[in-house]
Amino acid sequence: MKKLVLSLIAVVAIAFSANAANYKVDNNAIDNIIENATEVVTLEVATPAAANLPAVEQKVVKPVTALILNFLVGCFGVHRHYMGTAPGMWALYTFTFGGIFGIVDLVDFIMLIIGTIDNDISKYINNRKFFMWA
Q1: For residue 109, what are the contacts with CB-CB under 8 A and spacing of at least 6?
Q2: Which of 9, 48, 54, 132 could in theory staple to 127 by disulfide, Cβ–Cβ 3.0 to 4.6 A?
Q3: Cα–Cα distance for residue pair 65/83, rounded to 1 Å
Q4: Inter-residue contact 100 to 109 (CB < 8 Å)
Q5: Is the CB of residue 84 less than 8 Å from the CB of residue 62?
Q6: How far apart are CA 122 and CA 132, in angstroms?
Q7: Residue 84 — left, alpha, or beta (φ > 0 → left; ψ -120 to 50 → alpha)?
Q8: What is the per-residue pLDDT for 51?
Q9: Taking Cα atoms as reference points, which of 82, 47, 77, 42 lies closest to residue 62?
Q10: CA-based nearest residue to 93, from 82, 79, 83, 72
Q11: What pTM was computed for the model?
């Protein structure tokens, strides 16, 4: 088990370091861009620009889908990603083996069963807490 965890950490570290090696900074090009830049003046408009935009539909989160995702890959926090939680929540679930060795994942599963029966998991959608039910 230790080898698996260390291998996973090594793969993530190599992935981050490999991407960082590709970036090079050309100070002359940056100085040239700054020297040739033009100032932009903005004007205030009487009506907000957002008022003219069409309404964006919110993602519909189905309780049964969240429950199935929790059952199949809950230890990796996929169900939390589906419900719109914090972007790094999958890492917390993965590195704590389902949230404190599966306890958090199990409680999530039970709470999603209750939410599926009631057909209301709205308090878990876009919930940024690690313990979404607390």
Answers
A1: 67, 70, 71, 74
A2: 132
A3: 10
A4: no
A5: no
A6: 11
A7: left
A8: 59
A9: 82
A10: 79
A11: 0.55
Tokens of 14: 């190599």
Q: How far apart are CA 133 and CA 51, in angstroms?
A: 35
**Percent of the chain as helix, strand, coil, to the nearest 5:** 55, 0, 45
Residue 65, both tokens? 């889908």
| Single-letter amino acid code for the residue at 96 | T
Cβ atoms of 132 and 116 closer than 8 Å: no
Whether 127 and 82 have beta carbons less than 8 Å apart is answered as no
Per-residue pLDDT of the chain (134 residues), as tens digits, is: 778 888 888 877 776 666 655 667 788 988 888 888 888 777 766 555 555 656 656 678 888 999 999 999 988 888 888 888 888 888 888 888 888 888 888 999 998 999 889 888 888 888 888 888 77
Other residues' Cβ atoms within 10 Å of the Cβ of residue 66:
24
What's the length of the chain?
Answer: 134
